[in-house]
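Notes taken during the Thursday session

The instructor put the following on the board and asked us to keep it in front of us for the whole hour. The protein is N-acetyltransferase domain-containing protein. We were told not to look anything up and to reason only from what is written here. First, the residues (226 in total):
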Amino acid sequence: MEHQDIIVRVANSGDVHLAETITDEMEASAKARGTGIAKRSPEYVATKMLEGKGVIALTKKGDWVGFCYIEEWSHGKFVANSGLIVSPEYRKTGVAKRIKKRIFDLSREKYPESKIFGLTTGLAVMKINSELGYEPVTYSELTDDEVFWAGCKSCVNYDILMSKGRKNCMCTAMLYDPKDHYEPKETQDYFEKKSKVYERLMRFKQFLFRKKSGTKKSLFHTFFNF
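Then, after some discussion, the predicted structure tokens were revealed:
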């Protein structure tokens, strides 16, 4: 599929019929990766479309390609660009990057004073985020909104999150602060320098979070705070 044949735009009421397709692919993708996501219903995704808080990618024929949406937390102090998903047929076409850029711009338009954050288990998403100016942060720098964290209950890794006192989990936290941030070129360069470290860290997390040894836990904290 040629890049120019895919349209990326703000979702609207005419896209509601695709909500179930999108949520089904979200769940299937998470299972295939062996990781977890906070499950969303078709009705929830449809609401985001109706509110103008979603970005959808379609072919010129109207076939669904990808989707992402905005959530607001802590009375608008934080917003999250959540649920990024691309249909398997269109992965590795660059469309995920286009969706992330449009949802980021939409968030800045709607919530210019808000901090934008995301949680991801994927190195590719981390790379895209870094190109937008996001920085890796600790969980303590994210929203403390209980409703947000309650949304993680449907994730297969929820027990890990709670066992760590909501201070860590399989996901990596990233944040863009409109009042205090590096330029995208700086965060992108930093990510490129540290990408191998992040990759090892993610694998290390997966290994250690499934172990009970206190020695290994201590080793993880030593590694994480590089």
